[in-house]
Amino acid sequence: MDENAISFEVRRAAYKVHTALGPGLLEAVYELALAYELEQVGLRVERQVVLPFVYGGQRLDAGYRLDLLIENKVIVELKSVEALLPVHYKQLLTYLKLSELKLGQLINFNVNSLKDHMHRLVNGL
Question: Could you tell me the residue ranges of all domains in the chain?
Answer without folding.
Answer: 3-122
